[in-house]
Amino acid sequence: MSPIQEIIQKVSASHGTERIALLPILQAIYKNNHVLTEEDMIEVARELDISAAHVYGTATFYSFLETQKSGKYIIRLCKTITCMMHGKNIILQELERLLKIKPGQTTPDGIFTLTETNCLGQCHKGPAMLVNDTPHTDLTPENIREIIDKYRREALQ
Amino acid sequence: MTKNLKRLDLIFKNEGDSEVILGKTLARSNEELISDLIASGLKGRGGAGFPTGLKWRLAADDKADEKFIICNADEGEPGTFKDREILTSVPHKVLTGMAVCARIINCRQGFIYLRQEYTYLIPHLNNAIEEFHQLMKKFKVDFEVKIFMGSGAYICGEETALFESMEGKRGEPRNKPPYPTNFGYKGKPTVINNVETLAHTYSIFKYGPEKFRDLGVKDSRGSKVFSVSGDTPIPGIYELEFGMTLQKFVDDFGDGDAKAVQVGGAAGFCVPRKKFEKTIIGYQGKLTGVSLPTGGSMMIFNSSRSMYNVLHNYLDFFVEESCGQCTPCRVGTQQLLMGIQAVKRGERPSTYLDKLLELTEVMRVTAKCGLGQSVANSFSSIVENFKEEMIY
């Protein structure tokens, strides 16, 4: 069984093998591989017995699913109004300086992907960002360095 | 600063009595419970304000063999974070509300549609659901709740887009009617309620409809959880009574220099200082002034803020979050953004703003869902009240 089939089988245990299982399957593959490749999508389409175009349509609709390879840690910095008011741009500059990449890019070592995202629901503690699933709030240029260092150390271990 | 507004503590008060309340509530008849909900005046707290009791009755009246109850936790409106706090502090109230609804409409499967940004809440929620399932067994109720994760799409907070998303499709809203109470998830009758709405039903079943009805004003009963952010010394989550004027709100929460408040997030209305006194927070039903419904997002801007930047940020948001299905919204949002940029750069005359206002009216009438229709709210309220900031 291919790794993708294994993931599909695992998700199907709780969500079934019909199209209603599609989003959970895509989420699980993305969580595992940090990318949805064309081969993956064709495989999913075959397993669920739906058209690959439908799988592609769903996969490309959602901002938390990507068809390009992301780093081990995906940084999603909130750019919506209150985070912007509370200094999101300074945080972004600091992140760009620390990681030496621009939003949409991945570090050459494959550890970090930097993106900007819409409201994370942490408006009272902005600026805020997600690193994979973990929220970090009340960001400052100082504490952002520590956060990045912590993840980098984890990745290198 | 004097604190004028009464802070309430209904939603977040946890007395550890959910088993007793659930038992008592399940012992009453469906008709009694629906009557209580209708008498309480509870309306949907996601922002649209549909009467909750009526919604449950409509779903109960449908005789389909399979039905669903979905808790909408796809809290994506900029400036809103109350649902996250409710799910963190009192998930048992939300689950109890779902169980009672399930009994009334006769359904066995419930879902919490959680936005992916809140993935870190899953372990906590699963614990609450586990305990809840034990309770269901104890009361011999055949009802199960599952979490379904969104994947980062604001539009999926719209109920029919949410169903599409759960069905493995792109989150594109459906035409209405048919309404979810007859044709929802998988084409079956579905009650879909906001997190806060479900938590309120708990208070109503516990204290009775009168106590809830005593709060608030005509057409806007009960308390409401507000997410306060922006230029305020005390950002956070506050439970307040409906019917306050914006002036009172700003006196309590502003930094003394508030020039505008955005009520209801990017899809809501911007109210300038001169209208604070006449604006009342509540659902439609005119009182002494204009009353504005809100999902609970209150963003305060002080005089150091450029309202052009605020509007630009909202339009960036809408351009990205428009699902692209219908032309008025897909093209309209982009044209509005390019339009205000052109006016700012002097490439278009200031009268071009009137053309853009016309465009928002077209979008209000022709867009398929609430997203495209409500772009007009923030656009027109900011452009009309802060025209000079748009031009110079």
Automatic annotation (TrEMBL), chain A:
Gene3D superfamilies: Glutaredoxin (3.40.30.10), NADH-quinone oxidoreductase subunit E (1.10.10.1590). [2Fe-2S] cluster binds at residues 78, 83, 119, 123. Binds 1 [2Fe-2S] cluster. It comes from the Bacteria. The keyword Iron-sulfur applies. Its cofactor is [2Fe-2S] cluster. Keywords: 2Fe-2S, Iron, Iron-sulfur, Metal-binding. The keyword Iron applies. GO terms for molecular function: 2 iron, 2 sulfur cluster binding; metal ion binding; NADH dehydrogenase activity. Belongs to the complex I 24 kDa subunit family. This is NADH-quinone oxidoreductase subunit E. The lineage of its organism: Bacteria, Pseudomonadati, Bacteroidota, Bacteroidia, Marinilabiliales.
From TrEMBL, chain B:
Keywords: 4Fe-4S, Iron, Iron-sulfur, Metal-binding. Pfam families: Complex1_51K, NADH_4Fe-4S. SMART domains: NADH_4Fe-4S. Residues 308-353 form the NADH-ubiquinone oxidoreductase 51kDa subunit iron-sulphur binding domain. Coiled coil: none annotated. One of its GO terms (molecular function) is NADH dehydrogenase (ubiquinone) activity. This is [NiFe] hydrogenase diaphorase moiety large subunit. It comes from Natronoflexus pectinivorans. The lineage of its organism: Bacteria, Pseudomonadati, Bacteroidota, Bacteroidia, Marinilabiliales.
